[in-house]
Design brief:
mainly alpha, 2 domains, two-stranded antiparallel ribbon, 3 helices, rod-shaped, binds zinc ion
């Protein structure tokens, strides 16, 4: 048993790093192995980000057309099929965006409340595990 000089927590002798992030070999404070379980490396993050941003662009594009459609409907009242189609497409893209960010696809259903839902999805941090809610 050895104890950490930083946080005084006891660790098994074979441990190379304390839960607080203190590394017994380099004797420096590093990133804790505990918090990195869900976090992405910089390389992974840039990959995930570029993929997610493509879906975000698709979301914004459909949202734009949806808004355009709403204005059109207010004046005319026709073409409901187009409105439904673009709404489904928007929610679908939101689901893809959620999954690309590392969330369960059900998060994409927030797209049903359009702007608010998309804002919520954008504000969520990138994660590793796509299967978890
Ligand atoms: Zn420690």
């Amino acid at each position: 048993m050895k104890s950490c000089p930083k946080c005084k927590l006891g660790s098994p002798d074979e441990a190379t790093r304390c839960d607080c992030g203190y590394d017994f070999e380099t004797k420096k404070l590093e990133k804790s192995y505990l918090v990195s379980a869900d976090a992405l490396s910089l390389e992974e993050l840039s990959k995930v980000k570029s993929k997610a941003n493509n879906w975000l662009a698709a979301c914004l594009l459909t949202l734009f057309f949806h808004t355009l459609y709403l204005f059109y409907v207010l004046g005319d009242g026709s073409a409901p099929v187009f409105g439904i189609l673009i709404s489904i497409l928007f929610v679908f893209f939101c689901c893809q965006y959620a999954v690309a960010k590392g969330y369960n696809w059900v998060w994409g259903l927030w797209g049903l409340v359009t702007f608010l839902g998309l804002a919520l999805l954008v504000s969520k941090p990138y994660r590793k595990a796509p299967s978890r809610i």
